[in-house]
Amino acid sequence: MSQPLFADRTSAGERLAREIVGQGWVRPVVYALPRGGVPVAVPVAAALGAPLDLLLVRKIGAPRQSELAAASIVDGERPDIIYNGDVMRQAGLTPASLEGRAHEQLREIERRRSLYLRDRHPIPAQDRTAILVDDGLATGASMKAAITAIRRRHPLRIVVATPVASPEALRDIEALADQVICLAAPRDFRAVGYFYDDFHQLDDSEVIGLLAGAEAGARPPGRDQP
Question: Is 70 contained in some domain?
């Protein structure tokens, strides 16, 4: 690959938005997977006139193998734990044995949600089109957990939207979601960052600023606004 496909996450989100608008979504709500999914999701939500929320996913590592996901916990109006059956069996784990680690990750999710969104409550997915957005899918592990969790919340439809994905992750996600909108799935996929000119690590202040800007833009003008 000689040139990046996208200048940055925001421009990728703008291109993604053009593919998403006009498809007749029923009561859409956009869920961003932080941090990288937030600048992609902001223009998508704006183009749809849809509310923007976060879907925080935290991995629960196996004992002595913290990078091996035995389960994932996904926040929302009712946090969900998604178990990795293969890893659980191989490691001899049970849901009860992961309870302590799950509570640790849930506390971290609650800390991040409070930091990013303050006192805003999660937006329910029931009877809505849930559009899940990330900046790219390498293995798709976090997105798989997010889809499984959202499915339990009875949306009308689950749509995954991402600028770029590996062909393998795309196939896996297509099997789980009702629809996938992906701008590129290159055969020479190496990592998500290769496809962006600017793929810097977002910090908390950037995420807070993006969400505050999106909320202000979505708020109808009041008497204190021109």
Answer: yes
CB 160 within 8 A of CB 143: yes
CATH number for the domain that contains residue 155: 3.40.50.2020
DSSP three-state, residue 166: coil
The number of domains in the chain is 1
Q: Is residue 168 assigned to a domain? A: yes
Cα–Cα distances (Å) from 100 to 50, 74, 80, 96, 107, in that order, read 36, 16, 15, 8, 11
- The mean pLDDT value for 51-69 works out to 86
| pLDDT tens-digit map of 131-141 | 999 999 998 98
Quote the CA–CA distance of 116 and 85 in Å, as a whole number: 32
Contact 161, 133 (CB under 8 A): yes
Q: What is the domain extent for residue 203?
A: 9-218
Closest CA to 130 of 196, 45, 71, 215: 45
Is 4 contained in some domain? no
Q: Running DSSP on this structure, what letter comes out for residue 8?
A: S
Percentage with pLDDT > 70 across the chain: 94
d(CA 197, CA 166): 18
212 within some domain: yes
pTM of the entire structure? 0.88
- C-alpha distances in angstroms, 8 versus 40, 82, 110, 143, 145? 9, 31, 28, 21, 26
